C-alpha cells in the first residue's frame, strides 16, 4: 500500500513492535521521501543496500533495533543530502569505522554508539563540518582522539565514553563559536576541558556570569567574551579580579571581555605575561592596576575606575595603546608619561584629571592619537607639542590658557581646542575671517565666570571672540 503513495515525504514507524527483515525493494517507496524513521522496533537481518536510493532523504533513523551483519556504508554514503543518521544500538558484526561516511558533508547529527565499531576514528571524517552531535560511545574504537574533533567549530555534543582510546587529549584545544546567536549561559562544562587554550564566545547573546570552573583552565591563553550580556563579578577562581592572574600563571596573555556588565575590582598588579586586556564598557571600579611588563594594549574605557594614574610607568614601555577614557580618574598626568616611547594611542578623555600637560609628551614621537578632552587640565600647551606628528588631537573642554602654537594652527586641529576659554590663537590674515558666519564683537573682557563640570574659573584678556555655527567658543589674541 505504501508503495502506491508516490508523494510520500515523511515516514515514522518508531517506537513500535515491528519485527522481521526490511524488504529488499524498500526503494520502491516514494522517491520524494525525505524522512524515514524505523528506530526503536525489533527489526532484524541486514539493512538492504537499496536504502541508499532515496535521492532526497535528509533523515535516516535506524537505531535501537536488532539489525545484524554489515551495514551498507557505501550505499548510505550515496545519500548526499542526509542531515541525520542513527545506526546506534544494533548488534552489527565488528567492523572498522566507515570511512565512506566522510562523504555525508551535510550531516549535523551522527549517532553510532553501541554498534561494534573497531579501529580508529579516521581523519577523512573531518570533512563533516556541519556536525552538531557526534556519539561514538560504547564501541571498540582505539587509538588517539584526532585533533579535528577538538577543533571542530560547530560540534556542541560529543560522546566518546566506553571505548579504547589511548594517548593524551589534544594539548591545544580551541573553541571558537563567536558571532552566532548563542543564548543562555556559559556552560560549566567548559571548565572540564583541561587542555583548553582558546575560548572565543564573542558577539553572541550569552547572559549570566562566567562559571567558576573556567578560572581553573591553567592552559588558557586567549579568552574573548566581548559583546554579550554577561554580568556579575568575575569568579574568584578566574582570578578576575583577585586570583585569575596567579592561577593561569604564565599562560593567559589575551583577555577581551568588553561590552558586558561585569563588575568588581582588580588586583594591584596585573600578571607579567598579559599583552592585551580589554575591559571597556563594563562596571569595574577601584584604582588603576599596575600594568604587566609585557602589556601592549590596555583598554578600560567607560568603567568606574578611580584614583590617579600610577606614577611609575617605566615597567610598561611596551604599551602601544592606552585607553582610560570615561572613568573617574583624578590627579595629574605623571611626568613619567614620556617613557612610553612606543605609545601611539592615548585616550584619557572624560575624567577629572587636573594640572598641566607634561612637556614630556614631546619625547613621545610615535604618538599619533591623543585625546585629553573633557578634563580639568590647566596651564599652557607645551611647546614640545611641535615635535609630535599627530593624526588626531583633542583638548577641548579643559582650562588651558595662552596662545596656540603656530604648528597646531591648521585645519587638522581646528576643533581640538574648543571650550578652553583661556586659549587664544592668532591666525594669518588670509584665514582670520575665513568661514566666520557669526557676529563679532570687540570688548574689554574684565572678569568673567563660567561653570564647567561643576567648577568655576575666571580669566582676564583683551580679545576678539565670536560664536561660530556650532556655538563653539574661540578667542583671538590681540
Automatic annotation (TrEMBL):
Q: Cross-referenced InterPro entries, in alphabetical order?
A: Leu-rich_rpt, Leu-rich_rpt_typical-subtyp, LRR_dom_sf
Q: What class of enzyme is it?
A: transferase
> So what EC number does this one have?
2.7.11.1
A GO molecular function held by the record:
protein serine/threonine kinase activity
The record's principal subcellular location, in a coarse class, is: membrane
GO CC terms in record? membrane
Please report the record's description of how this protein sits within the membrane: Single-pass membrane protein
Keyword Transferase on entry: yes
Keywords on this record? Glycoprotein, Kinase, Leucine-rich repeat, Membrane, Repeat, Serine/threonine-protein kinase, Signal, Transferase, Transmembrane, Transmembrane helix
- Provide the protein's localization: Membrane
Q: Which reaction does it catalyse?
A: L-seryl-[protein] + ATP = O-phospho-L-seryl-[protein] + ADP + H(+); L-threonyl-[protein] + ATP = O-phospho-L-threonyl-[protein] + ADP + H(+)
Query: Under which name does UniProt file this protein?
Result: non-specific serine/threonine protein kinase
**Which source organism does the UniProt entry give?**
Oryza nivara
